[in-house]
Specification:
With about 675 residues, this protein is α+β, with helices and mostly antiparallel strands. The chain has 6 helices and 39 strands. The strands form 10 sheets. Strands 14, 15, 16, 17, 18, 19, 20 and 24 form an 8-stranded mixed beta sheet that branches. The chain has a 6-stranded antiparallel beta sheet with strand order 3-29-30-33-35-39, with no helix packed on it. A 5-stranded antiparallel beta sheet has the order 2-1-4-5-7. A hairpin with a 5-residue loop joins strand 29 and strand 30. It is globular and about 115 Å long. The N and C termini lie far apart (about 100 Å).
Length: about 675
Amino acid sequence: MSSTTVVEKKEGMMNDNSGGMMNGSNGSNNGNSMGGMNGMNSNERSPGNPIPVPSDLSPPDSSAANPSYTTPNIDAIEAEHMIVSGGFTDEDWDAFPIWSYQLAADSDGTQGSGWVDLSGITMGEEGDSPDAAGKKCGWYLDEQGQEWPAGRVGHLSVVREGVLHVFGGLTYESKRFEAEDGPYVWKADVGRRLEEARNAGKRKDGSQCSDLLEWEKVDPEVGVYEGDDDNKDVKNKANSADEQDVVPSSEEDNTDDSKGNNDQSNDPNANEDGDDSPATNNTDAFKSSEDAALKVLPSEPETEALRLLRSSLPRGECQGGHWPSGDRLILYGGLRVSHVPDPRHNSHRHSSNSAAGVNEYVQIDTPLGDVWAYDYEEDRWELMAPYPPHPWQRDEDGRYPRARTAHGATVVGDKLVIYGGMASSYEDDDPASFDGGGASSRPSNAFGAHSSSGGAGGAGGSWEDASSEWDALTDVWTFDLVTRKWEERGPIEPQLARSYHSLVGWGDGSVAAFGGFRTARTVAGDPIAFVFSDVILSRPPSTPTAVLRWMKAQWPQVYSAKTVPNRLEHTAVLDRFGSMYVWGGRFKTVGQLGDDVWKLDVFGGPVGSPEVRFAEAPPDGLDAYEAELEALHLLVAVMMFMSVLFTALYGTLRRQAEAARHTRELAGGGGGAQGS
């Protein structure tokens, strides 16, 4: 599922609260979209057990902390809502519900009421399970001929001026995942629905809104973002030659397809001679629009550049948020899925499954690393940074983040912040100093929501199965949306790898992550997943040479009787006071979690909130655990080698002794014969 926030002002006007420090992201945005499960504490699976928070953090002034608001006066806000869309349960992958949750604090840190159904669909009879209701929802929409987003996971959502915008995600059908066939954006006026629901007093007790939520499916134009007209320095650099830019020495190796690399470059401006400097305005593939800062690809006739650029957009598990000062939706990375015939089957067979139940198509999962902006007013996608990025978009050492999926990302001010996720293990470059090469496209071996075979979570496989094909990432990067340059924050100690976690950001540039998971290996070499329930915080560096550390939040004493269950693929948002709300997700299944909403005042919270403190985060222990395992494996290997060596030596000595004895016997027998 995906979530965003919206505020309701006292005069009744809807305004978005999804950008800047108020924006939340959540790994793949997958999770429980219906609720109603039995709760289960899973702390025994976490190597680090629950949650820490700080008293030395105070909310910045409201104008800096809330750049997406039209007014800094938070007293004018009557209510603030978390908007949740889509997702899955253990049985239902078909429905795309829209729920609203009013962000109001409970004294014990958990929330259990305040849900409003914005879909306006009769979901079923009394007593129906959420999954059965989801099925009926699909049938009802088909009967009504209503255009509605297909059920999906890993999508991105933002509310702007009361309108919910939904992009991307992966649908699941016939035991395989698919992305949409175009860069579509779905829009729905949830602000009006909230007003209707408030006036009618209709809550999540079975009552519904009076009519269906109306969706608009938009097929945006696609172009290349070149900044605003007043940003001359950036534009001049974007249109200059890049002979003076830092180009890593490994760059020349990126075009060697014999290594299996797919540099997945989606920049149609790349020159034929291999120079990836930004194209100038005379590029034939583009025509100038009324906005001189943007080159728009012509829709007719369709060019190869247009086709490639459009085809690179559909994806799942992308992350980002609302950019208030640029008034755009920002997205980064994600997962592209494609299907190719399984060579084990005849090429003329096209069904997804054979009679024996074996998939005839192999799902190819490709992590992505590009940055896009969506212009709300113009309904237009704009490429801000291709993958690999231009040399001038990289840091001073020519480095940039690896393409990834299952990461967390949020927009804070004019910067996109990304943390963690997973990268393809088939990249040839060292992830600690990644300076070239593209992500390889390889078949997935049933990794969680990417699987095309098996059976976990209704989708197949389990998230432990493919740990050998993905690298867990620990890095934090910022992408300046004005200068369009990457810069690494850190490295931050200790190195904490997270995937399918959530990430929210505050006005001073701090970011906080919750939950997620990573994999390790058992003594027997089998993969095992560790699921977290901690809140870790990263502040921006105070000086260029500052040593950065992760800080771990600690629950206030008033919450000591409550423990948030470990989870991944959940959703999280931040309200205007700096309180973080977490809902949904799964442990190994969705049903292992309850439908409570959990709240922690990470960045201060409203006046009178329980005090939350932070302490330096300890290592997860998994690196030491894996190092001990490697040492144990080495010891076992040495012992086995010594055993084999001893056995061989013993055998050799025994054979030599046997030979010597046999020689003596022969010699003794011969002497007796001579004596006779």
